[in-house]
């Protein structure tokens, strides 16, 4: 089973270059579901400041309502899109990944609406859980697929927003996904150690450069 002590979530709110707090448009959520399952959602609003925060609150409420009525991750995201679209401002969209995890068996069913592909570490290799549909709020009706994986003992999955891979160094070099792959697959790490390793790698890469975007990440690991 997946022990709850091995699930850790982290949402880092950075300072803007002008040293004022930015209101984040990133969010994650854990949603208890019937049958010992857990819903995990991570999302990123394509905007900054108060508008992004307000849309983040709206999407979180829509997600919680949808997943309690709809079992399929793909159908749940499609439903959220239909409800969100009338309120979406021109150019406003939201990327989101939603997974349903059976804590007893390790089965994970997921759908990805234009979000950064989560990273599944399995047998020492990193696999990208690719997008299964377009971002929310772009069109009224979306086609959304879903995929299924089985988490085995020692497997981990990292959900994250693009503030990690798009972090710049002092020489304007992106952190990128390859560096992230190296951190998540290095050794038999706990969920907490994976997040701490990413923190350290980002700090070393960024140096004194002010982060340009919010960073949100969630790490889960199958143990026992």
What is the strand and helix layout of this fold?
Layout: E1 8-12, E2 26-33, E3 37-45, H1 49-69, H2 73-84, E4 94-102, E5 107-113, E6 119-122, E7 125-128, E8 147-150, E9 156-160, H3 162-165, H4 176-184, H5 191-206, E10 215-221
Antiparallel strand pairs: 1-10, 2-3, 3-4, 4-5, 5-8, 6-7, 6-9, 9-10
Helix pairs in contact: 1-2, 4-5
Radius of gyration: 17 Å
Per CATH, what is the topology?
Answer: Phosphatase 2c, domain 1
Q: Structural class, from secondary structure content?
A: alpha+beta
Strand order of the largest sheet: 1-10-9-6-7
CATH-defined architecture: 4-Layer Sandwich
The domain count comes to: 1
Tell me how many strands there are: 10
Q: Output the helix-strand order.
A: EEEHHEEEEEEHHHE
By CATH, the superfamily comes out as: PPM-type phosphatase domain
Average pLDDT, rounded to a whole number, is 85
Uncertain stretches of 5 or more adjacent residues: 1-21
């Amino acid at each position: 089973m997946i022990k709850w002590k091995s699930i850790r979530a982290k949402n880092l709110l950075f300072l803007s270059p002008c040293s004022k707090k930015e209101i984040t448009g990133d969010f994650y959520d854990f949603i208890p579901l019937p049958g010992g399952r857990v819903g995990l959602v991570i999302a990123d609003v394509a905007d900054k400041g108060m508008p992004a925060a307000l849309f983040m609150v709206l999407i979180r409420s829509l997600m919680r309502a949808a997943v309690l009525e709809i079992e399929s991750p793909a159908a749940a995201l499609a439903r959220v899109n239909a409800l969100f679209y009338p309120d979406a401002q021109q150019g406003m969209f939201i990327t989101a990944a939603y997974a349903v995890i059976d804590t007893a068996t390790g089965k994970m069913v997921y759908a990805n609406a234009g979000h950064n592909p989560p990273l599944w570490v399995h047998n020492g290799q990193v696999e990208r859980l690719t997008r299964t549909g377009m971002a929310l709020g772009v069109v009224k009706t979306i086609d959304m697929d879903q995929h299924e994986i089985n988490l085995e003992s020692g497997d981990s999955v990292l959900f994250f927003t693009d503030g990690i891979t798009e972090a710049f160094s002092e020489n304007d070099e992106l952190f990128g996904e390859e560096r992230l792959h190296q951190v998540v697959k290095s050794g038999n790490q706990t969920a907490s150690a994976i997040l701490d390793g990413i923190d350290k790698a980002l700090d070393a890469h960024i140096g004194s450069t002010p982060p340009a975007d919010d960073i949100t990440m969630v790490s889960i690991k199958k143990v026992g």
